[in-house]
C-alpha cells in the first residue's frame, strides 16, 4: 500500500519534477540493494517503448564499487528483451551510479550512459524511486 501511495505522489508531481535536480537518499547499503527489482511505474521514455509487461532490473555487486545490471521486459509479441548495463558508484552515499550499456553494438557508443540516482528508498528496501540526474526520467521499483 505504501509503495502505491509513493507512486501516486511521484506521478502527481511530474509537471514540477523536471524543473529541479533530484535529491538522493543519504545512504544506500549496496548489498541490500542488489537483486531483482520490478518496475511499478515510470515516466515514459523512448528506450523502453517496446516493453509491454514484466519489466525488471537485476543488479549484481562487483569489485571496486562496480555494479552489473540486466534490464529485462516482455515485448508485445511475447519475446523477452534484455539489455546489459555496467555501473560505477560515484560517491560515498552509494546513491549515485553511472551506468553504461554493455549489450551488443551499443556498448561502443560513448553517449549511451545514464546517471542513476536513488531518490527514495524504503527502510526495508522493499521499494525505491530512481531518477536521472537531470530529473528527466523516473522509475518506481519494488521487490515484488
Walk me through the structure.
The protein is mainly beta. The chain has one domain: Lipocalin (Beta Barrel). The protein is 13% helix and 45% strand. The protein contains 3 helices and 8 strands, in the order αααββββββββ. It has helices at residues 2-12, 14-17, 30-33; strands at residues 35-42, 51-61, 66-75, 80-89, 96-101, 113-121, 127-132, 138-142. An 8-stranded antiparallel barrel has the order 1-2-3-4-5-6-7-8. The longest helix has 11 residues, at 2-12. The chain is globular and about 40 Å long. The mean pLDDT is 85.
Topology of this protein?
Blueprint (H helix, E strand, L loop, with lengths): L1 H11 L1 H4 L12 H4 L1 E8 L8 E11 L4 E10 L4 E10 L6 E6 L11 E9 L5 E6 L5 E5 L2
Antiparallel strand pairs: 1-2, 1-8, 2-3, 3-4, 4-5, 5-6, 6-7, 7-8
Tags for this entry?
8-stranded antiparallel barrel; 144 residues; Lipocalin; mainly beta; 3 helices
Examine the secondary-structure arrangement and name the CATH architecture.
Beta Barrel
Low-confidence stretches: none
Number of helices: 3
Quaternary structure annotation: single chain
Give the C-alpha Rg. 15 Å
Shape: globular
Helix content: 10-25%
Largest sheet: 8 strands, antiparallel, barrel
Average pLDDT level: 85
Number of domains: 1
CATH fold-type name: Lipocalin
The counted number of beta strands is 8
CATH superfamily: Calycin beta-barrel core domain
Q: Distance between the terminal alpha carbons, to the nearest Å?
A: 12 Å
CATH class: Mainly Beta
Amino acid at each position: 500500500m505504501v509503495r502505491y501511495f509513493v507512486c501516486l505522489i511521484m506521478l502527481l508531481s511530474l509537471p514540477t519534477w523536471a524543473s529541479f535536480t533530484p535529491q538522493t537518499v543519504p545512504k544506500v547499503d549496496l548489498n541490500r540493494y542488489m537483486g531483482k527489482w520490478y518496475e511499478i511505474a515510470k515516466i515514459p521514455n523512448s528506450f523502453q517503448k517496446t516493453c509491454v509487461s514484466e519489466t525488471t532490473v537485476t543488479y549484481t555487486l562487483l569489485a571496486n564499487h562496480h555494479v552489473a545490471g540486466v534490464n529485462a521486459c516482455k515485448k508485445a509479441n511475447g519475446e523477452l528483451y534484455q539489455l546489459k548495463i555496467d555501473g560505477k558508484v560515484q560517491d560515498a552515499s552509494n546513491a549515485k551510479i553511472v551506468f553504461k550499456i554493455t549489450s551488443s553494438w551499443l556498448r561502443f557508443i560513448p553517449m549511451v550512459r545514464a546517471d542513476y540516482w536513488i531518490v527514495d528508498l524504503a527502510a526495508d528496501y522493499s521499494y525505491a524511486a530512481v531518477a536521472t540526474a537531470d530529473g528527466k526520467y523516473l522509475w518506481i521499483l519494488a521487490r515484488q
